[in-house]
């Protein structure tokens, strides 16, 4: 028998929450229900799975996860929706959802979810923590430092980056050194790994010279 799991049912109307809770209990699992995020934050659960209905993820799964992260809740989040559109499922997963379930919830779907969670939840949560930490570190970079990191991730040398950004190789070296220090990276491969873990889109459009270049050029002197 599958090990009992705690299901945190978030959002939806009271009838939907009650139906989902009854199903969980009938299958030998435990369920807690929350009308909204405020109630979930008050409870601050530390184990189990969050089943988030459409209304609490209306701004997108990424936005919901950010709110949970800010409140120290790292449980895997499953998007629950009455939509069977593949596009909606893909968007939820891209936004960071652990899984996607169509409502109404069935015993078969819940059983598959629990099995999936038992096998993959720990790995998923660790990856989510790494992503958040990587984005925080990269968010501390200046525009030029971020640009250097982006091109470094593309495999470009300092000279190639300098040509692309129309600055001197020495200035690139200074931006790169500052970038590595802020990221806490001891070598370029570690910085690139953080960039990839952050899963940020690369914008290859050139940017105008800014104050960072002036500061770096003074250091180059």
Give the helix/strand layout:
Blueprint: E1 6-10, H1 14-26, E2 30-34, H2 37-43, E3 49-53, H3 61-70, E4 77-81, H4 86-94, E5 99-102, H5 107-139, H6 143-153, H7 158-165, H8 169-183, H9 188-198, H10 211-220
Strand order of the largest sheet: 2-1-3-4-5
Give me the CATH architecture of the largest domain, please.
3-Layer(aba) Sandwich
Q: Show unreliable segments.
A: 201-209
Treating each run of at least 4 consecutive H or I residues as one helix, how many helices? 10
DSSP strand tally: 5
In CATH, what is the homologous superfamily of the largest domain?
Answer: Response regulator
What coarse outline follows from CA principal-axis ratios? elongated
What's the domain count?
Answer: 2
| CATH class division of the largest domain | Alpha Beta
End-to-end Cα distance, whole Å, is 70 Å
Structural class, please? alpha/beta
Per DSSP, what share of the residues sits in E-state strands of 2 or more residues?
5-15%
Radius of gyration based on Cα positions = 22 Å
State the helicity in percent bands.
55-70%
One letter per element, helices H and strands E, the order comes to EHEHEHEHEHHHHHH
Query: What is the CATH topology descriptor of the largest domain?
Result: Rossmann fold
Largest sheet: 5 strands, parallel
Mean pLDDT: 84
């Amino acid at each position: 028998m599958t090990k009992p799991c705690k299901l945190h049912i978030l959002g939806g109307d009271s009838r939907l929450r009650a139906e989902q809770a009854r199903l969980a209990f009938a299958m030998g699992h435990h369920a807690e229900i929350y009308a909204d995020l405020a109630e979930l934050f008050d409870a601050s659960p530390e184990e189990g799975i969050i089943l988030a209905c459409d209304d609490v993820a209306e701004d997108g799964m990424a936005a919901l996860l950010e709110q949970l992260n800010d409140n120290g809740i790292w449980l895997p989040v499953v998007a629950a929706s009455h939509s069977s559109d593949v596009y909606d499922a893909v968007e939820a997963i891209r936004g960071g959802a652990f899984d996607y379930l169509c409502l109404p919830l069935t015993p078969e779907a819940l059983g598959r979810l629990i099995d999936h969670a038992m096998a993959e939840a720990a790995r998923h949560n660790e990856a989510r923590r790494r992503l958040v930490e990587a984005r925080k570190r990269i968010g501390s970079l200046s525009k030029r430092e971020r640009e250097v990191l982006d091109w470094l991730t593309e495999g470009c040398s300092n000279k190639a980056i300098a040509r692309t950004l129309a600055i001197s190789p020495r200035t690139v070296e200074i931006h790169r050194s500052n970038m590595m220090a802020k990221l806490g990276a001891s070598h370029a491969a570690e910085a690139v790994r953080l960039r990839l873990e952050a899963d940020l889109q690369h914008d290859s459009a050139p940017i105008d010279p800014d104050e960072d270049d002036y500061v770096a050029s003074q250091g180059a002197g």
